[in-house]
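REQUEST ID: PR-0412
SUBMITTED BY: lab tech R.K.
PRIORITY: routine
TASK: structure prediction, single protein chain
INPUT:
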Amino acid sequence: MRVHDRDVEIGVAGRLLGGQLSVPERSSGLVVLATDGAGQDGRRSSHVTRILHASGLATLKLGLRTADEEMAEEWTLREGSNVELVAHRLEVARDWLQRDDSLSLLPVGYLGSGLGSAAALVAAAHQPRGVQAVVTFGGRPDMAGELLHDVRAPTLLLAAGDDADRVSLNRRVFDALKGRKALRFVEGATRGFPEDAPLVAAARLASAWFSDCFRAAAGPGVLEWTGEPSAP
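STATUS: complete
OUTPUT:
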């Protein structure tokens, strides 16, 4: 399937965020990826976008930081850090996409990893009608705090099955979510999903979730997610 790529810049509060917009022919939905885009996080997002594109899903790979923030030492995942700031940037990106006539009719989802896991959930809580699906891919979704109770978009939590701390953390997040939700522990995966096979398996689960939720949003009826991966 042919994929059309272009670099974009999105203005947020007088600053510019860089990103890459990739649109397969006959796209059925669009996923905004909140990722640091470097190191392990960059490797993970590359695997995920490849599988999403093969399923007919467009992606906006959005950098979480502006150029000057790349040098800052305060971008850490701790209480009172940058979760709300990144969530706001996701919301602005979603609104920016809606102003593009060629994309405005596509259902939109958020996929967050690292700091973006919590930010994706916070952004979804702020936009109860503006986002049709969320996937958290590792990271610390618990940092969304009390806003977890306000998330109404169907949410899939993907966690490393061989990381006991993350298993416990994601169980707590799952219990706090009130809307349609699913929790999957990926066997053979450790923190950060450095292993290739578990990473691909998780990406296929994410693709299946988005595809099913987007079809349901297009109606009529509500589809039940089987948890079966989509073919790459």
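NOTES: Residues 3-68+80-218 form a domain with the Rossmann fold fold (CATH 3.40.50.1820).
REVIEWED BY: pending
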